[in-house]
Design goal:
Elements: H1 3-16, H2 24-31, H3 35-46, H4 50-67, H5 72-78, H6 84-95, H7 99-112, H8 131-144, H9 151-164, H10 177-189, H11 194-199, H12 205-208, H13 213-217, H14 222-232, H15 244-258, H16 265-286, H17 289-302
């Protein structure tokens, strides 16, 4: 069995046994590795130790259970913490706030008649939202995050993207530009640089759009066109891990995973495997917790 396939098994095994006692030796034995070899390849692949990964997964699942109304003490016991205080310290160290504050958020949401968060980190994508609605959401987020992109520039980028992808639709039947707007929204939430956010609107224009880079250069600033080209030519390379193109590809992959239902079951499995083998380790190594946790959830769901 290839090492990548074994890593898929490892991540699935961990997620299925988060409520049990887990040790490095137990997990290594399951996939047929020595502890020493397993520790080395896991750290190399995921950018963290095995038990760091286990604890991150437990804390994420615990946050989801708290959001669903479970008591903090019950959740702590469920995910193998020996005490309420130990769980609280780990939770606060991971997320920067206590689980009791998360519990309070649930109460406030229920009192105001709102919906609890689908995910504890990034806002959920608006499925079936019209491109005009997504444009307004993007503009609002840019203002809230104080990102220096003028509204006139946003409108220009939007018009250019609509032209570049005119007549092109997603598997779901939606205008393709809705995908790009969601990528830009995710990059805005991640506080990416202005030129990175704008380039996200053209993340696959060479492959799927109706215009060339030269034509884009007539309408867009050169720094954005350069990023579009780098993104279109992107391949995973360790030395280019922290590039702007990598961040764009991660945001694009997250939205694709969020809307994966429209493709076939085999395609979903292939996309999930690729996500675990390539994109999840990148997000982990870059320390983008918000994105990494959700990619992990979605990939395991479809695997």
């Amino acid at each position: 069995m290839e090492s990548k396939e074994r890593m898929n098994l490892v991540l699935s095994y961990i997620d299925l046994h988060l409520q049990e006692v887990l040790s490095v030796g137990k997990i290594a034995e399951y996939v047929g590795y020595s502890e020493y070899h397993f520790l080395r390849i896991f750290k190399q692949s995921m950018g963290m130790t095995v038990m760091e990964y286990v604890n991150k997964r437990r804390l994420l699942k615990a946050s989801e259970d708290i959001l669903n109304g479970e008591r903090i003490l019950d959740v702590a016991v469920k995910y193998e913490w020996q005490s309420h205080s130990g769980f609280t310290k780990a939770f606060k160290r991971e997320y920067g706030f206590s689980p009791s504050l998360l519990k309070l958020m649930v109460h406030e949401i229920s009192q105001t008649g709102g919906d609890a968060m689908n995910h504890a980190f990034l806002q959920a994508s608006r499925k079936n939202a019209a491109k005009e609605e997504l444009l307004q959401i993007w503009k609002t987020l840019l203002r809230e995050n104080e990102i220096n992109i003028m509204e006139s520039q946003v409108d220009q980028i939007y018009r250019c993207a609509c032209h570049a992808y005119e007549g092109i639709h997603r598997y779901s039947g939606e205008d393709y530009v809705t995908h790009l707007l969601n990528v830009a929204i995710l990059l805005t939430e991640l506080n990416a640089a202005p030129e990175v956010i704008c380039a996200g609107m053209f993340c696959d224009v060479i492959k799927k759009g109706n215009v060339s880079l030269e034509q884009l250069g007539e309408e867009l600033p050169p720094e954005i066109v350069k990023l579009v080209q780098e993104t279109s030519e992107w391949e995973y390379q360790e030395e280019k891990l922290a590039s702007s193109a990598t961040l764009i590809k991660l945001a694009e992959r997250l939205h694709n995973m969020r809307t994966i239902e429209a493709i076939s079951e085999q395609q979903r499995k292939d996309r999930a495997k690729e996500t675990i083998q390539i994109f999840l380790p990148i997000a982990g190594k870059l320390g983008i917790e918000k994105l990494s946790a959700e990619l992990n959830d979605l990939a395991l769901k479809y695997l």
